[in-house]
Design a protein that fits this description.
Keywords: NADP, Oxidoreductase. Helix content is 45%, strand content 15%. It is globular.
């Protein structure tokens, strides 16, 4: 079947959920989907911040924001139940919410591991589990439901900073995604990872102040930081007809950083 180029990337009318969508990478992805005509739901732990972002993004289309704590099973199920009150199906789930903890090997606390793994790994799994009925209601042979998880190129290499829980959690979620891709294929669902490189988040801005932009850009062949449209474009590709036959993939969006590692 022939598809005009524009329709290959059409996500208009799709119901899209972006966790951690109030700022950073999540906001960039949510904005991309809103501008592309999707109906977008975002969540974050801070209700005021989430509602503010949703109101701002609503200038470009339809966006709704809700507070949710996805770091535990109860929070994941509660958020899924909130969505089920408003939608009969979800076409795209973007697992973006995540935590990071930086500490020396000698002082790295158990609480740091728990906080990172509870959200970055367990949170992804249990939200997918809770969202199964909504995703299954959308899934068809020709147009699968999509699960897109934000990983990291730190899962491909040993990072410079002491982020032991974070880097290993991202490696875990990459493998979890491959496992989901295999097990959910017969339910007409795809599962893929977007692995960002250096994105100008608040954390990176702090590092730039300490180390300088030139130093931070040195290992990146394309010599710039990732921006919202870069991540949104990758997510829209995976959510559209163009990406409907892609599953179990790890897609670096890093300016070529991973090629130098």
């Amino acid at each position: 079947m022939n598809h005009p180029a524009q329709s290959l990337f059409d996500v208009s009318g799709k119901v899209v959920v972006v966790t951690g969508g109030s700022r950073g990478i999540g906001r960039g992805i949510a904005e991309g989907f809103v501008r592309a005509g999707a109906k977008v739901y975002i969540c974050s732990r801070k209700a005021e911040e989430c509602e503010k972002t949703a109101a701002e993004l609503s200038a470009f289309g339809e966006c709704h924001g809700f507070a949710a704590n996805l770091g535990n099973v109860e929070g994941a199920r509660a958020f899924a139940a909130t969505l089920a009150e408003r939608e009969s199906q979800v076409d795209v789930l973007v697992n973006n919410a995540g935590n990071i903890w930086v500490e020396t090997l000698a002082d790295y606390p158990e609480s740091g591991w728990d906080k990172v793994y509870d959200l970055n790994v367990k949170g992804v799994f249990f939200l997918v589990q809770a969202m199964m009925p909504l995703l299954e209601a959308s899934a068809t042979h020709e147009d699968p439901a999509r699960i897109i998880t934000i990983g990291s190129i730190d899962a491909f290499h040993v990072p410079e900073h002491e982020t032991y829980a974070y880097s290993s959690s991202k490696a875990a979620v990459h493998m979890l995604t491959r496992h989901l891709a295999l097990k959910l294929a017969d339910k007409h669902m795809t599962a893929n990872v977007i692995a960002p490189g250096r994105y100008r988040s608040q954390m990176l801005e702090n590092a730039i102040e300490l180390e300088g932009a030139d130093e931070m850009l040195a290992p990146i062949p394309l010599k710039r930081f990732a921006e919202g449209p870069d991540l949104a474009g990758a997510a829209i590709y995976l959510a559209s007809r163009a990406g409907s036959f892609v599953t179990g993939a790890m897609l670096p969006v890093d300016g070529g950083h991973a090629t130098t590692l």
